[in-house]
Amino acid sequence: MREDWGMRFGVLGPVEARVGGAVAGVGGPAVRALLAMLLLDAGRVVPVERLIDGLYGAEPPSGAANALQSQVSRLRRGLGDAALVEGRPAGYRIVAGEDDVDALRFERLAKDGRRELAAGRHEVAAELFAEALGLWRGPALADVSAPFAEAQAARLEEERASVVEEYGAARLATGEAEAVVPVLRELVDARPLRERARALLMRALHGCGRQAEALAVFEDGRRILAEELGADPSRELADVHVAILRGDHGGLGDRYGRGDRGGRGDGGGAPRANLPAQLTSFVGRDEELRRVGKMLAEGRLVTLLGPGGAGKTRLAVEAAGRERGDVCFVDLAPVAPDEVPKALLGALGLREGGMLPAQGGRAPDAVERVRTALDGRRVLLVLDNCEHVVASVAGLAHRLLSACPDLRVLATSREALGITGEALRPLPPLELPPEGAPAREVAAYPAVRLFLDRAEAVRPGFAVDEGNVRDVLRICRALDGLPLAIELAAARLRSLPVRDVATRLDDRFRLLSRGDRTAAPRHQTLRAVVEWSWDLLDAAEQTLACRLTVFSGGFTLEAAAGVCRDDDAADAVASLADKSLLQSDGVRYRMLDTVRAFCAERLAEAGETERFERAHAEYFLALAGRADPLLRTAEQLEWLTLLAADHGNLHAALRRSIRPDPALALRLTAALSWYWWLRGRVEGAPLAAALLDAVGADPPDGLEEEYVLCVTNAVSGGVSGEQAVAWLDRAETVLHGIRRRLRYPVAIVMWALAAGPERTDNAVFAQQIGDDAWSRALVKMSDGFVAQFAGDMAGAERACAEAARGFRECGDRWGAANSLDTLAQIADWRGDRERALALLDEALGQMELLGALEDTADLLYQRAYVHLHGGELDEARAAFERGVELARRAGTPDKVAGGYQGLGDVARLGGDTAGARRLYETALTGYASERFIAVAVRGTAVTGLAWVALAEGDVERARELLHESLDTAFDHPVFRHRAFAAAGLAAVALAEGDARRAALLLGTAAAANGGRLPADPAVAHVSSQVKNALKDDVFDAEFGRGAALPHGEALALARADGTTP
């Protein structure tokens, strides 16, 4: 088929069609609207129903389908070629390519520009953005007033505004501030609440030397934000303001200049979304969908309100699915109020802990981690089923919206969140036909359309006609137009005539109307529908439906049979799904919330809730126990996936067991410990803490090991202070009293990393560790860590090589990656960069399979240091930047800080002392806890600042910072920053003219680093200068004296500022 007709189309302005440069006479307003709808989906079939809805709205005229055919004919005549508009069985398609329609070409150019911007090719990006903006001839769809046009125009105009901003950022990056002032000012005047545009305009004015104007732009923005939103300027806008006041050009850098569109994914890449897949068509909410789209285009917090079954979730999913940027869907139905932030972390795909746990202080605040992950990203956050956690959601939404200017939130709830800036959209019932409407017209009304759509699915060929129209209308009216109720009623057509459905619904409603008049009418109606559906179930189906309510977050057929003690559960589950009481994705089943609440009441009335909650807990205890050893085998990934699917059930089982059966809860906590550790899911920590409160000071007999694991989970998750010390003291006593091999060998590594070396007794562990392959590998890895920290690199290498082989044979990627990481550090220490990079590549491959963002960031930082030590600054910078991005996505402030500290090293070694200082200070600002790795980050950043001070000639300041670095973590086992600080003190001594003392201190640096100087070019330069200042024998003697000291004594000498002991 011919695709190139020499025809070009435009919607970025008045709708037009051009042939060879001449404008074709398309036709009147209705035909232009039809052409515009087809062009926005050029090359794809647009369904007739969607065209009618878009052209006529919620109330199309009678004969709308015939009118559409007439308009298609007129459009074909206007275009001069009937083949341009193809008729298909389901709708119509306009034959046009991407470059034939200005809107599609605009979007392609914008995408290409963002890619170039992300790659740092600013000139090319600016040209692409300019070409894209040049396609606009006026407001989008300027001469179209059909119902569909408003939302589409708003979307295109939003995209245009983003491209203007990106064009401004690209031109600023090429030093063309004067050129972008007019276009940015026009955008700010048109959209005064766009803070990024205002920040770019301020930068452009400042770049032209017009500082006063730039400050005036800020003050105007501050006033408008206060008056319109009652809000303060965003952090980005405030930072630009402060930088202008200080005359700090370095502080005026645009984080978007690297291709970040104010948050559209990864440098403008493909949009990402985790929206649940829908198994049925979307019917009857077209007007609400349009309005929600408009509200999201104009505001930042939209809440859909309505009773259960009103269709809030489905409308939210459909609205979010039309977003071009990132979308994150969070189902809060199974979530407790204090677990809302952690649910967001899970939905964002973030782990809640890295290779190493919290150490002696608080873990990163979950809300802060979410904020870090969302900062600077354009994301729509969909918070579904908020009603039972409304206070928690309200506080979280307010905090995130205040901190993340590019974030928008779409919530569904039965009540408003009640915070400033919230736009409410109550969902009305689906529209019903008027009394006496003829059969040929009723199908156009949303309530009837939904009924017919679902009825046709269970009874193919069903249609409304003069014979059944009264019964169809009786059903839809009796159900008040509530979508869930209508779907449940339509499902009954599988086995009942429509008249019987209508009659039985009417009888039941008459009975309920004399019941509880205090409940909301629609709640009565929905309850009536569910109760009526319940009465149509046979006894076995009713029994199973009640028992299934103990599941949280869905279940498999195997789980249903196991928990409900029903070997024939598969047939009954399938029957419940057929009757719309369960939803299925083909593997797992989920009960609708309203149905679940109704059936749970029946289970309670039968006195069986406790019985089946216990059966549920026992089933998932068995599942977790079966999974635990397999998480240390080649089946690791498969079992991680299986446990993640039942995450809600596992936590529900644990939560419900804490008070009635602490012993069962302890066993379940132990069985889940390694799963939590691998996934970083520290939401297990509050459950572990609650369990410890229930258990008391003494664990049940025979569950000592489980008690120790419970303590490690609580402490690793951030419990600190006196309570943590008391639990650790008790657990230490309990652990040392176990004189047998442990059932859970992971207890050894978890205890060592959570409790610290001072509480770790290797002699006790030697009696407790098993002789299985994984345990033997673990012992070798532990030996390697101990040897490395003691400076015995040869011993560390031997042990970790054996550990890596052992973990590979077991199939445990976590252990293998950790062992390989240590081997890479040793290879780097020896100067074997090629081997170090190869080992790190293998470790990265293992961690990426686990989906470990934070641990992958750690490995990327290690890779960056290998490049740095080899003088490959560009490669080091790229690895650090990628690691920072992963850490930011993971929402881990400490890991982000570690990346900035590394970037500071790159800047320092590149001669950019001012840039290095900024980056080190940024790292220290982002330092958020006393975690094991965070202490090392702080020490290294402070040492980096000392080297900057030395480069700038401030010797006294350098000395102060180096002492601060050593004092921060004198006993910290990460030796890199301690040796680096000792070498810095050697540089101080040299600057003060004491070369002999400098040689001695260089020796102490080598002693603290396994016998070699830190592989930093600045250290090598100092060493060379000291050698030049001394005779060879003198240098060798002083250096040897320092290097011969045990590393603890060497550091003590360095901390004493070189005074000879």
Describe the structure.
62% of the residues lie in helices and 5% in strands. It is mainly alpha-helical. Among the domains are: 1-174, Arc Repressor Mutant, subunit A (Orthogonal Bundle), CATH 1.10.10; 286-426, Rossmann fold; 439-536; 623-766; 936-1061, Serine Threonine Protein Phosphatase 5, Tetratricopeptide repeat (Alpha Horseshoe), CATH 1.25.40. The strands form 4 sheets. Strands 8-9-10-7-11 form a 5-stranded parallel beta sheet, with helices on both faces. Residues 1-5, 254-271, 354-363 and 508-524 have low confidence and may be disordered. Residues 1-96 bind DNA. Residues 1-96 form the OmpR/PhoB-type domain. Residues 255-274 are annotated as: Disordered. One of its GO terms (molecular function) is DNA binding.
